[in-house]
Specification:
The structure is a single chain. Helices cover about 45% and strands about 20% of the residues. By secondary structure, the protein is an alpha/beta fold. It has a single domain, classed as Metalloproteases ("zincins"), catalytic domain (Collagenase (Catalytic Domain)). Helix 3 crosses helix 4 and helix 4 crosses helix 5. The protein is globular. The chain starts with 6 loop residues before the first strand and ends in a 9-residue tail after the last helix.
Length: about 160
């Protein structure tokens, strides 16, 4: 691992349903593939109740969503160049499993995609307009291909 991609990673299974199938080494591999700079990240798996509470409290949306990224040094003006990205990435197991089934993907494929998506958000990528969305989706697709996963946006 290069110094630019130094990673401190914590994985929390508040909802333990995926603990056996989505392992820490898998998560580390997916996170590292999406990192462009040093990072200190927490990946936390939660149930629908915790996911809904977090989404309501921090985004004003009263439902559980698949992934939430809380980037703590986003927009900081005076960080040193080597300052690590700091973020919590929350994945809601209930939504993740439902979406995987609806999209006819494995839970592993969908989890890999959502983690890559969350890590990109932590590094400042967004999809608020069509141009940003196209750029972010292209980066996600490229990263997932290097990991052996299909294009998550293909029909």
């Amino acid at each position: 691992m290069s110094a630019k991609n130094k990673l401190t990673l914590s994985v929390q299974y508040a909802d333990p349903r995926l603990q056996e199938s989505i392992t820490r080494p898998m998560i580390r591999k997916w996170v590292q593939a999406a990192l462009f700079a040093p990072a200190e990240l927490t990946i936390r798996f939660v149930d629908a109740a915790e996911g809904q509470t977090l989404n309501r409290e921090y985004r004003g949306k009263d439902y559980a969503t698949n992934v939430l990224t809380f980037a703590y040094n986003e927009g900081e003006e005076e960080l040193p160049d080597d300052a690590p990205t700091q973020a919590d990435i929350i994945l809601c197991t209930d939504v993740l499993e439902r979406e995987a089934a609806e999209q006819k993907k494995t839970v592993e494929e969908h989890t890999a995609h959502l983690i890559v998506h969350g890590v990109l958000h932590a590094q400042g990528y967004d999809h608020m307009d069509d141009e940003e969305a196209t750029e972010m989706e292209g980066i996600e697709t490229d990263i997932l291909a290097t990991l052996g996963y299909a294009d998550p946006y293909a029909d």
